[in-house]
Amino acid sequence: MALTLSRPDMISLAAGFTDNESLPVRETREIVRELLSNPAKGRPTLQYGVTPGDETLRLLTAERLQRLDGVRKRSAAHDPRRVMISGGSQQILYMVTEALCDEGDIVLVEDPTYFVYLGILQSHGLQARGIQVDRDGLNLAHLERTLEHMKRSGAIRRLKMLYLVSYFHNPTGLTMSLEKKARALALLRRYERAAGHPIYLLEDAAYRELRFRGEEVPSALVVRGAGSRVIYAGTYSKPFATGVRVGFGVMPEPLFSTVIRIKGNHDFGTANLTQQILVKALGLGIYDAHLDRLRKRYARKSAVMLRAFQQHMPPEVEWWTPDGGLYFWVRLPSGIPVGQPSRVFKDAVRANVLYVPGELCYASQSSRRIPANEMRVSFGGARLADIPEGVARLGKVLRTAVRRAR
Amino acid sequence: MALTLSRPDMISLAAGFTDNESLPVRETREIVRELLSNPAKGRPTLQYGVTPGDETLRLLTAERLQRLDGVRKRSAAHDPRRVMISGGSQQILYMVTEALCDEGDIVLVEDPTYFVYLGILQSHGLQARGIQVDRDGLNLAHLERTLEHMKRSGAIRRLKMLYLVSYFHNPTGLTMSLEKKARALALLRRYERAAGHPIYLLEDAAYRELRFRGEEVPSALVVRGAGSRVIYAGTYSKPFATGVRVGFGVMPEPLFSTVIRIKGNHDFGTANLTQQILVKALGLGIYDAHLDRLRKRYARKSAVMLRAFQQHMPPEVEWWTPDGGLYFWVRLPSGIPVGQPSRVFKDAVRANVLYVPGELCYASQSSRRIPANEMRVSFGGARLADIPEGVARLGKVLRTAVRRAR
After folding, report:
1. Distance CA B381, CA B387 (A)
2. How many CB atoms lie within 10 A of CB B73?
3. Residue pLDDT, tens place only, A167-226
4. Would you call A268 an interface residue with chain B, using a CB distance cutoff of 8 Å?
């Protein structure tokens, strides 16, 4: 980020920023004007709220999730009393991890996974153990082998959670099927007796609403038995405005009560102003109208990036094209490292283009030797007009690297 | 809070809420209108910021603190690079404690102190040890005796911090003199060799700007040697609008870098919209103009409360009248308990008036038997017009209790 700021010609395909040009400036201005139109009406917005978050926002969130999940009847897993509002979904990940895990405990993660979550685990002295992913998400056979192995070694007694970025996965862009999530949850439950405690599934759905192609996939909340074992982390920041940081978590008791105590200690509740903006945006349909535009925008940006890949990447380079979210996952031949110490990375910086080295996204207890030849390339934050040039620069660097490796 | 909501006749003199009627509704609306007046100008406000907070806000904060502290020359302790923006000062307290303390460590606190901070300590498995306070703040002789005792027992090796609510203390309303802060810091330094590590002074200045009488007291940041040992937690929420939750911390390296990593894990930065509102409010003088009005408002509310005390309290009841902040500290004869299980508390609830029992504000390792006869009575959140009636109700309950105890 420092590099991007100091070099105006830099095109960052690294940052997980959202599209800048489509931010809802007018919409937010009008919402605030309405919220604060007169003193009596405006005061509650500017006063403290309550720790779990605004009641209406919790209700709207529960209803929205239930709709997204295609559940008709009132479901226990979508009860508004399970919904907690937070300062972004990140805070939910942090608090849940703090609530469930003690130093030395183990969390299973996808290999690769969201690198900031690896930082959270590390900062709590927890072990992240990687589970392999295939083209359609988590490798269930590897999950089962890992659980079995942990059972035999006794390590299962330290296992608290499986963390999944289930929609347009960061960094790979993959979405996991409902069936896989259900089977993963069933597997976890089978090992609970050996663990001696619940093993939770933490579903990070931060990118869920950013789908621009294909069919909606229900969350793990609809799986039988999910009510007591699934924790869902979502956000309104990426789909609406990242400067209005509001996320939410859905979680069962007694975890909810523990996390509320932690939330009380963190900040006793997310800023009321930003919550009220979301209440209005959701309630008046402004959010959905914006989301429609945003999805079209990302569809366009990803199509432009795909075309640029096809034009500029050497034939030795592969990529996964996402159906939503912000990321392409790019793989070079295995002999060509692209990590921060690599020549490719340095050449890219020199060529004024940035990406995220894939190796940062692997757990230290990875399921295999950490691949050095992968990168996350984002179309989220870059300006539409800059994407072809950014990819052209990167393509040139990679063509040189492939030639050099021959 | 649940009680207040469910019983509309309830007058809460308990909550630490700020004055509702003076919230800057029009001012905030105009600021947001200006911030979001057109798309190009508005986008940065709605995009992610950086983890330590907006550069301009950090600079304005450093300058403001330096001015409040009466320091003319650029001071290392007031360097903007030491300022971190947070979601309220509470988050600073939380992160600093997480950064400095390991399970089993000891933090010295005033006896009584801010009860939410006691919760933070407890949730991290830390020990809170109480230091006595006199009418003018911390009892330095007791601090020294405690340090000496800890040195002899070896417990000093677990001591990481002294936590002080130094302005209009919650719950007692006291403000500590600069001299006392300087002497406390000097004492801590004397025991660092025995501790084997730095012992920090965490100054919680959440109420500082809410002074309505008397002279400004400089913060511990101006004390010689403060640069490397003083952590300062402040907030813009209480002086401006609690619904726009923005606080800040000032801290030395290497602590700053550790806390930034924690902040990155929590939420990688406070909502940009709320930060930009403060940038405008501070930069355009709106904040100071509002603060002027707010101080007059609290002066009036506290005067009304004082008059009501004089009128309605039985002669056996004593109170400390504050020069700022939100709280009166009230003491009954020692034979009359007022805690949650007490008859007085139940009678007060029945009479539709709430206060905070003082016993909640004592560390479990208190310096003495925890007094059961104290209460925190707030004029912050109650409506001005309700204060006389609230105090009248409380006075009636207390007169009955005093009569009963005779």
Report:
1. 10
2. 6
3. 999 999 999 999 999 999 999 999 999 999 999 999 999 999 999 999 999 999 999 888
4. yes
Is B265 within 8 Å of chain A by CB? yes
B136 and B276 assigned to the same domain: yes
Tens of pLDDT, residue by residue over A326-383, are 999 999 999 999 999 999 999 999 999 999 999 999 998 888 889 999 999 999 999 9
Identify the domain boundary among A231, A265, A287: A287
Place of tokens 């050095």: A372
Residues 27-66 (B) with a CB less than 8 A from some CB of A:
28-29, 32-33, 36-39, 42-50
CA distance B25 to chain A (A): 6
Residues A261 and A357 in one domain: no
Cβ-defined contact of B87 to A271 (cutoff 8 Å): yes
What type of residue is B70?
Answer: G
CA distance A315 to chain B (A): 36
Contacts of B273 in chain A (CB under 8 A): 28, 241, 243-244, 273-274, 277
**Domain, as residue range, for A138:** 32-287
Residues of B in contact with A46 (CB under 8 A): 23-25, 28, 241-244
> CB under 8 Å to A257, separation ≥6 — which residues?
none
- Is B273 within 8 Å of A38 when comparing Cβ atoms? no
A87 plus A124 within the same structural domain: yes
Q: Which amino acid is at B304?
A: V
Domain boundary (A234, A253, A287) is at: A287
Q: Are residues B19 and B38 in the same domain?
A: no
Question: Is the same domain home to A40 and A7?
Answer: no
Name the domain count of chain A: 2
Classify the complex by whether its ipTM is higher than 0.90, answering yes or no. yes
| CA end-to-end span of chain A | 33
Q: Half-sphere exposure of A143 toward its Cβ, with a 13 Å CA cutoff? A: 26
